[in-house]
Amino acid sequence: MTGITGFYSDEWTFWHSVGLQALFLPIGGFVQPPSGVAGADTPDSKRRLWSLLRTSGLMDKLKLAGAAAIDDSDLYRVHTQRYIEEFRQVSKAGGGDIGDFAPFSAGGFDIACISAGLAKAAMSDVMAGRVNRAYALCRPAGHHCLSDRSMGFCVLANIPIAVEAARAEHGLGKVAILDWDVHHGNGTQSIYYDRGDTLTISIHQENCFPPGYSGVDDRGSGEGAGANINISLPPGSGDAAYRAAIDQIVLPALDRFQPDLIVVASGLDAGAADPMARMLATSETFRAMTQTMVEAADRLCGGRLVVVHEGGYSEASVPFLGLAIIEALSGERTEVVDPTLGIFDAQQPQADTVRFQLDRINALARTFADTAAL
Ligand SMILES: [Zn+2]
User: Fold this and answer.
1) Ligand 1 centre and the CA of 312: distance in Å?
2) How far is the CA of 362 from the centre of ligand 1 (A)?
3) Where are the domains of the chain?
4) CATH number of the domain at 5-17+36-367, please?
5) For residue range 307-360, what is the model confidence (pLDDT) as tens digits?
6) What is the whole-number distance in angstroms between the Cα of residue 129 and the centre of ligand 1?
7) Cβ distance 154 to 144 under 8 Å?
8) What band does 266 get if pLDDT is binned at 50, 70 and 90?
9) Catalytic positions, please?
10) Helix residue ranges per DSSP H, the chain
């Protein structure tokens, strides 16, 4: 289905700062301090995606929009009062880190409310039929954030905030959230773990982040039993493994669940050049996965599909991965050729390695064969 694709972005989101050496890399001690950005989420991967959308001409084919910051009623549908009050206070006082690996600078709360607002506006416009599909260039990301604690660069749960706003304001029913960020979507999982109206699926590198977690046995509880699926892939999984995971596990689960809206938590850090993970996806992998989700949304829920940007830390390759996604989402094709594709195609695993990865996926497909029929 063609139609209007909305694109939601805001200059302020690029101003969010996590500091230069934000995470686990040692500073000083026995090793020379890093000379640049090390282990940090910088604005440049996302800003360069924005630039490529402009220079490629793709932006001219999209309906461009900003968004209002979310308000207290949006926040408190998902987050605890205690967490929000502390976040607001520390942000006013100059910034800090009130969770696990989720630092922010002065004004971080206000920027996070704009980032979540982009996801909310994208979802609201799709639900109201103002656009057919939508892409929200959110920063900071959201999928690690719990209801009461920030985590992994994520300080507000952007997608649950947007979903719950759409439920309150547009009567949205069943939602399927597919998270292909290379790290586990633990925040989204925890918020919806006992809910039967929201299917959460995460495709991620095993044991990557949260460290040591793969989650295959965590399948939801209570009314949410069977509505949480973790597709844990071994490091080095590339194009063949990702396509197989989508075809053999994600699509059957979506067909059983029959969602009213499909949301993709679209981290781009499964890309082969990403410094925060060890996977081998290419721009063609992301193009194919997006195309499959467009077709699934057309078949299952009137085309309603919202893609929300999560992680992705390679300044070099994120713009080309994001362009492929937004081309597939909008049905447009620019003349841009991904200059890294030849290299990363040649780096794909050999046949016997792929067979090992597909064995894992086949086993998971059997495990999840009866899930998500709610
Ligand atoms: Zn990630």
Assistant:
1) 6
2) 24
3) 5-17+36-367
4) 3.40.800.20
5) 999 999 999 999 999 999 999 999 999 999 999 999 999 999 999 999 999 999
6) 30
7) yes
8) very high
9) 144
10) 44-55, 72-76, 81-92, 108-127, 158-170, 186-192, 239-245, 251-257, 283-300, 318-330, 341-346, 351-367
